[in-house]
Amino acid sequence: MTDLDALVGEWLTLPDLAEALDIEVGKARGLVRDQHVVGIKRGERTTFQVPARFVLPEVDGRPGVIPTLRGTVMVLSDAGFTEVEILEWLFTPNDELGEQPVDALINGKRAAVRRVAQTLL
């Protein structure tokens, strides 16, 4: 298990992501392409996977991706972070936030997360 595996915990393949969101796999690929989620190739068969915590049980009345994740991913991407570095940052506890940035996003602290992320530019 790599450090990233220890930080993230559960992962979803694209078919699993599609099932969790009740969408087609092609639409799940679109979420990746449009940076609504970020993932990496990993595992025994090096399949593309995203962290399961990106999926919330209810967004606008149905399962969905953390609504504020995309903007944060874009800020980090603009700062030159790779997908692995973005995931490490999102899942590493942050002293300024008092929790992992992904948890802060889930808890509605978008502005605080983006403020911290922008200091990395």
What does this structure look like?
- With 121 residues, this protein is an alpha+beta fold.
- It has helices spanning 3-8, 14-21, 25-33, 69-78, 83-91, 101-106, 110-118; strands at 11-13, 40-42, 47-51, 55-59, 62-65.
- The longest helix is centred in the middle third of the chain and has 10 residues, at 69-78.
- 24% of the residues are buried.
| Unreliably modeled segments | none
Morphology call: globular
Tally of individual helices: 7
Summarize model confidence as the mean pLDDT. Answer: 94
Beta-strand proportion: 15-25%
Widest sheet, order of strands: 1-3-2
Say how many strands there are. Answer: 5
Main β-sheet description:
3 strands, antiparallel
Indicate the structural class: alpha+beta
**N- to C-terminal separation?**
30 Å
Range of helix content: 40-55%
Secondary structure: elements and pairs:
Blueprint: H1 3-8, E1 11-13, H2 14-21, H3 25-33, E2 40-42, E3 47-51, E4 55-59, E5 62-65, H4 69-78, H5 83-91, H6 101-106, H7 110-118
Antiparallel strand pairs: 1-3, 2-3, 4-5
Helix pairs in contact: 2-3, 4-7
Quick structural overview:
The protein has helices at residues 3-8, 14-21, 25-33, 69-78, 83-91, 101-106, 110-118, and strands at 11-13, 40-42, 47-51, 55-59, 62-65.
What labels would you give this structure?
single chain; 121 residues; 5 strands; 17% strand; globular
